[in-house]
Design goal:
Layout (H helix, E strand, L loop, with lengths): L5 H10 L32 H15 L15 E9 L5 E8 L6 H11 L12 E9 L5 E3 L8
Antiparallel strand pairs: 1-2, 1-3, 3-4
């Protein structure tokens, strides 16, 4: 009786799908549509740290259906740190992923969401502002931002 070689065993397992890469979750293939909030007042924040809360509230209003209610579960699908630059009129001038999430599809998904939520509250006292926030993303596509998080179980 011939013993299968290591190579043929690995090849058989690969063909059977044992070593197949996990499929990306479909909910991250395209960012959800932003709900344009009612006209908002300009931000009175005097620093990026203060503006971060205004930016987070704006994103929560734009994506109310995607916000995870309550404490986040212990295992998150993706955690990303994203830096956003907002111009004088509230326009998104730049979005940069500072820390890539383990699930690669989360970064472009979140970046698209930020861009689609423009205009943000205008940073009146600063002219423009660059701030960063941590995106905590569940596999369902629901998320919280660290600035407004309800914590984690």
């Amino acid at each position: 009786m011939n013993k299968p070689t290591h190579f043929s065993l690995v090849a058989a397992l690969a063909l059977a799908g044992v070593f197949a890469a996990p499929a990306a979750f479909a909910q991250f293939a395209q960012a959800p549509a932003a709900q344009k909030p009612k006209a908002h007042a300009a931000s009175v924040a005097a620093s990026a740290k203060d503006y971060k809360k205004d930016g987070a509230k704006h994103l929560y209003a734009a994506y109310a259906k995607q916000i995870h209610k309550g404490k986040m579960p212990p295992l998150l699908y993706g955690i990303a740190i994203i830096e956003t630059t907002i111009g004088p009129q509230g326009e998104v001038q730049d979005v940069r992923v500072v820390r890539q999430p383990a699930a690669a599809e989360v970064a472009p998904w979140a970046t698209q969401m930020i861009k689609a939520a423009a205009p943000f509250p205008a940073p009146a006292k600063m002219g423009s502002v660059t701030y960063s926030d941590i995106w905590l993303v569940h596999k369902t596509g629901k998320f919280q931002l660290d600035t407004l998080t309800e914590g984690q179980r």
